[in-house]
Amino acid sequence: MTGPETLRDIVPEYRSGNPAVRWLFWKRVEWAVDMARLGERPLDILDLGCGEGALLKALAASRPGHRLQGMDRHPGVAGLKIAGASIRQGDLTEPGALPAGAFDRVFCLDVLEHVEALEGPLGAIREALRPGGLLVLTAPTENVFHKTCRFILKGTFSEAEGPAAGRHYHKADTLARDVSSAGLELLDARSLPLPGPLALIRVMSFLRRP
Fold first, then answer.
1. pLDDT of the residue at 1
2. Which class for 61: exposed (0-12), middle (13-18), buried (19 or more C-beta within 10 A)?
3. DSSP 170
4. How far apart are CA 77 and CA 53, in angstroms?
5. What is the DSSP string of 14-79?
6. How many angstroms separate the CA atoms of 203 and 49, rounded?
7. Distance between the two ends of the chain, CA-based, in angstroms?
8. Exposure winner among 29, 150, 179, 210, fewest CB in 10 A?
9. pTM score > 0.90 for this model?
10. What's the mean pLDDT when you consider all of the chain?
11. Inter-axis angle of helices 19-35 and 54-62, to 10 degrees?
């Protein structure tokens, strides 16, 4: 398995020829923005693992006035330009990657399941959030339905094979426990496309209490 060649290869589902797949991935962006509880007051917002900037573009278009930042370890972000957002290359797993107390909202869409050792990164995210700030993340359920859909669409049960491959060290349920153990409180959790055994993606929000 090799990493994505371009930023667009990180989440090719945004442009999938399958309308159900496109809907699923754009709907998770819509729900993530909604669960971030963005009001009129300008906030400092970070998109961790921003990739090609789909979320940042959605925020800039639908919720103008906030101070947007994106970070991704892919070298392609060096040339990424999004109006109203600043972008930088960085690796969440490296010490000092995030400034303390700098953000009101942090988004991690399909990012944390790819990080094997979570203790340091989750601690860094918690410290980067101001008191009262929110972490909004999405993660795969990796249930039977999820694996079956992967086989139908990609011809493999393994997340580490096929298009947009990347090993999943964690799934939504275990991530929720890990994030809570890191000192953030689960506020909301929604499942796409449906709850229960038909859930493919879970969208969750967590609060850093004052």
1. 43
2. exposed
3. -
4. 9
5. GG-SSHHHHHHHHHHHHHHHHHTT--SS--EEEEET-TT-HHHHHHHHHSTTSEEEEEESSGGGGG
6. 16
7. 42
8. 210
9. yes
10. 94
11. 60
On whether residue 107 sits in a domain, the answer given is: yes
Report CA dihedral (123, 100, 135, 121) to the nearest 10 degrees: -30
Q: How many domains does the chain have?
A: 1
**CATH number of the domain that residue 86 is part of:** 3.40.50.150
- Cα–Cα distances (Å) from 30 to 25, 54, 82, in that order, read 9, 11, 19
- 11 has pLDDT over 80: yes
Mention every residue, 6+ apart, whose C-beta is less than 8 A from residue 73.
Answer: 49, 89, 90, 91, 92
Q: How far apart are CA 80 and CA 77, in angstroms?
A: 5
Q: Does residue 23 contact residue 81 with C-beta atoms inside 8 Å? A: no
- Cα 201 to chain centroid distance, Å, stands at 11
Q: What is the pLDDT of residues 40-54, one digit of tens each?
A: 999 999 999 999 999
Q: Which two tokens stand for residue 127?
A: 């410290």
Answer whether 25's CB lies under 8 Å from 178's CB: no
Domain presence at residue 2: no
8 Å CB contact between 136 and 56: no
User: Could you give the CA distance from residue 145 to residue 115 in angstroms, rounded to a whole number?
Assistant: 23
